[in-house]
Amino acid sequence: MLLLASLAGCSDLIVPDPDDHNNVAEFESAWQIVKSVYPFFQFKRINWDSIHTVYRPRAEAARGDEIDVVLAGMLGELKDAHVRLLTRGGASVATYTPPRAERDRYAYDPMVVRKYFDRELRLAGNQKIEYELFGDNIGYIYVATLRTEEPVLPGFDEALSYLKDTRALIIDVRHNGGGSDNNSIGIVRRLITTSFDLPPYPLPGGGMQQGSFVVPRGPFQYTRPVFLLINGVCFSSCEDFAEMMKHVPTVTAIGDTTSGGSGAPELFTLPGGRKINVSTKDIRGYDGQPIEWNGVPPDILIRQSAEDIKQGRDLQLEHACELTRHLHVGNAP
Fold first, then answer.
1. Confidence tier at 263 by pLDDT (50, 70, 90)
2. Angle between helices 181-188 and 152-162 (to 10 degrees)
3. What is the spatial distance between Cα 245 and Cα 228, in angstroms, rounded to a whole number?
């Protein structure tokens, strides 16, 4: 009786075994969500039914949170850097790193950039915008993010107002991981004088979503030469931004091809509380090709390595500076 009483008193301390049947439900839900919304199966030549055949037995064999490994493996088959698993514990699990992002991870350093200035850079937009004058009346603006929750546009407007009388402008978005199209389009609108078309993209059920157009905004438009710095860590809406900027007549893109991830992801909740982030749109460039995997190439290719950065050199910034020295006098204010 004493033993039974002791066990009864401890019954609420015993953690029950996880219901492993739920793991199959988690797997099936994730697989079906991807099947219904993912836009790149044909482009990437992925047979999603075959993926199900491979991973379903693994889901059946998984015990407890081992299903996280199975789900991450299945999602990793998409080779899409937007696709992530959020575990029940809140961890965000990346399933893929684009090769160009891996290559350029250490090929840019803001501290090296600052060595090219004889003064401290000014900050705006919750410190997501850095800007200043340097050289022969050249403006520089670094845009660290395009995230909705950051005041990017007010910060950019502040910087542009300060630099409005420069001979040329360097806009640096290297290592910008993207965010909101409203922010990227908002920046473009300060650099155009007439309406500007956006590229169309395919709809999930067939047909094309026709590209809309944007119009100038702000108290003035910057119409002198602009040099855009990009690299392999530019990702998501930053790549859409680079594609738009390349089609602004005054802009020249310098650096290296962007990461190659532009699928407008959405977050979906699985039955057990896990979440998956999945691309839902096949965003295209003006040439009609997917930005996914392809990335956005620069107008002028300037390769830069981690070794250059170790030596205190920013070759991409240096090339932009060199181009500004050859501008016609008529471009000066």
1. confident
2. 20
3. 8
C-alpha pair distances (Å), 117 with each of 141, 142, 252, 290, 314: 12, 13, 22, 38, 12
With a cut of 80, say whether residue 12 has pLDDT above it.
Answer: no
**Residue 160 β-bridge partners:** none
Lowest mean pLDDT among 2-11, 201-210, 234-243, 323-332: 2-11
The Cα–Cα gap between 163 and 140 comes to 8
Report, as an integer, the average pLDDT of 322-326: 90
Check: CB of residue 80 under 8 Å from CB of residue 282.
Answer: no
Q: How many CB atoms lie within 10 A of CB 138?
A: 21
What are the structural domains of the chain? 109-260+295-326 (3.90.226.10)
Q: What does the alpha-carbon distance between residue 179 and residue 171 come to, in Å, rounded to a whole number?
A: 17
The Cα 108–Cα 128 span in angstroms is 16
Beta bridge partners of 290: 284
Query: Which amino acid, 3?
Result: L
Cβ neighbour number for residue 204 with a 10 Å cutoff: 13
Residue with tokens 């990793």: 76
Cβ-contact 254, 226 below 8 angstroms: no
Tell me the CA end-to-end span of the chain in Å, nearest whole number.
Answer: 96
Contact 221, 188 (CB under 8 A): no
In the predicted structure, residue 76 carries a pLDDT above the cut 70: yes
Share of the chain above pLDDT 70, in %: 92
Q: Is 25 exposed, middle or buried (0-12, 13-18, 19+ CB in 10 A)?
A: middle
Q: Per-residue pLDDT tens for 156-202?
A: 999 999 999 999 999 999 999 999 999 999 999 999 999 999 888 88
The pLDDT of residue 99: 97
Residue 149: phi, psi to the nearest 5? -75, -5
The torsion angle over the Cα atoms of residues 106, 109, 112 and 117, rounded to 10 degrees, is: 150
Residue type at 9 in one-letter notation: G
